[in-house]
Design brief:
With 336 residues, this protein is an all-alpha fold. The chain is built from 20 helices and two strands. The radius of gyration is 25 Å and the shape is flat.
C-alpha cells in the first residue's frame, strides 16, 4: 500500500472514531490538532457519508492494532506533556504544573518559585508594590493562594488590583522580567521570554470568589464606581449555587430543562429541604412531588457527590447566562 493510500486510510479511521465519540470528547481531541490536521479530518468527516457498524468496528480494531504493535515512544515525553498542558490550561499555568512534576527540567526562575511561597511571604514581597505589579503576580499563582494575598492587602488597594487582573490582557516579556527582577532580589533566578495572555474577568472572579466574603462585598461596589461594566462582568463569573435560589421562575425553568434529573436530585439532596423550594416551585406539582420522593428514597449520600452535582448545575447556569438565555446577579440599582 502506498504512503498516500495509508495516510488516506488512517485519516478515514480517525474521522470515523471521532464521529463515534461523544461530541464533548471529540471536541477536546480536535482542540489538540494543528490547522492542517483539522482540515484533513474535517474534510473526511464530511465526505464519509453513511458509516456502518462494520466500518466503525474496523476503525476501532485498527486503532487497537496500532497501539499493540507500536506502543507509545518515550522520546521527548516531557515536551509532549508540556504541549498538551499548554493547550489545556495555557502556558502560564502549564509551567507551574511542569515545575511541580519535573522540577529538574529547567532552572527555577523567581516567578516559578513564587508559586510555592505562602500568602504571608508573598505579601511581604509585594504587599507595598503598585497594584499592577500585584495583579501580574496574582494571576500566576493558584487562585486559593492569590485569594489569601488579596484578602491581606489594604482595603483601598483590593479593588484596584482586581480591576487590573481583569484588564491585563497580553503581557510582554519586559513586564515579566521586571517582576522577576523584583522577586529575584530575594528568591533568585530570571524571567522567561515568551508573551503570555493573562487575567480576564474569569481570573479575577476566581480569586475574589475564593477570598473571604467581605472582600467581594467591598471590592465589587468600589470597583463599580469607576468601572460598572467590569464589576458586572466579574460578578457574572462569580456564580455560586446559592445564587441560583434567586432565579425567577422563567430562568429557573430554563435551567431545569437543561439539567438531567439525576444531577438535580443529587444537587438538591445536598441542601436543606427549605432551600429546595425555588427549584421545586418552578416545576409542576407532580414533577416536584416526584423529585421529593426520589430525594427521600436515596438515603445517605456522600457530600462530595452532592457538591459535584451542584458544580454541574452552576456550569449549566454559566453557559445559559453566557448565551443570554438567563440572567442573574446584581442589577444597576445594586450599585451607586
Amino acid at each position: 500500500m502506498s504512503t498516500e493510500s495509508q495516510a488516506r486510510r488512517d485519516s478515514d479511521r480517525a474521522a470515523i472514531l471521532l464521529l463515534a465519540l461523544d461530541d464533548g470528547i471529540a471536541a477536546s481531541l480536535l482542540a489538540r490538532l494543528e490547522p492542517a490536521e483539522l482540515r484533513v479530518l474535517g474534510e473526511r468527516m464530511v465526505e464519509l457519508g453513511e458509516i456502518g457498524s462494520e466500518a466503525i468496528a474496523m476503525a476501532v480494531a485498527g486503532f487497537v492494532t496500532r497501539c499493540e504493535t507500536q506502543g507509545l515512544g518515550a522520546h521527548d515525553r516531557l515536551g509532549q506533556v508540556r504541549t498538551m498542558l499548554n493547550r489545556a490550561v495555557g502556558e502560564t499555568k502549564a509551567a507551574g504544573v511542569i515545575e511541580r512534576i519535573a522540577p529538574q527540567a529547567s532552572a527555577a526562575p523567581a516567578l516559578d518559585l513564587a508559586r510555592w511561597l505562602t500568602p504571608a511571604v508573598l505579601l511581604s514581597l509585594i504587599g507595598d508594590e503598585h497594584p499592577q505589579v500585584i495583579a501580574l503576580l496574582l494571576v500566576q499563582i493558584e487562585p486559593e493562594t492569590a485569594a489569601e494575598v488579596l484578602h491581606g492587602l489594604a482595603a483601598e488597594v483590593q479593588p484596584q488590583v482586581v480591576q487590573r487582573i481583569a484588564a491585563l490582557g497580553p503581557v510582554g516579556p519586559e513586564a515579566l522580567a521586571l517582576l522577576d527582577a523584583l522577586l529575584a532580589e530575594r528568591i533568585a533566578a530570571t524571567a522567561g521570554s515568551e508573551v503570555f495572555t493573562m487575567g480576564g474577568a474569569r481570573e479575577a472572579a476566581d480569586i475574589v470568589n475564593a477570598a473571604h466574603r467581605s472582600v467581594a462585598q467591598r471590592v465589587l461596589p468600589a470597583l463599580a464606581k469607576f468601572d460598572k461594566a467590569l464589576a458586572r462582568q466579574i460578578e457574572s463569573e462569580m456564580f455560586t449555587f446559592e445564587q441560583l435560589y434567586a432565579l425567577d421562575d422563567k430562568a429557573m425553568g430554563s435551567l431545569l430543562r437543561e439539567v438531567d434529573s439525576e444531577t438535580l436530585i443529587m444537587a438538591l439532596k445536598g441542601i436543606a429541604p427549605e432551600l429546595r423550594e425555588p427549584f421545586l416551585g418552578a416545576m409542576s406539582s407532580r414533577a416536584a412531588d416526584g423529585v421529593r420522593d426520589e430525594i427521600e428514597a436515596r438515603g445517605r449520600m456522600r457530600r462530595s457527590d452532592a457538591l459535584e452535582a451542584q458544580k454541574a448545575m452552576i456550569g449549566t447556569a454559566r453557559s445559559l447566562a453566557a448565551s443570554g438565555d438567563i440572567s442573574f446577579g446584581a442589577s444597576d440599582d445594586d450599585y451607586v
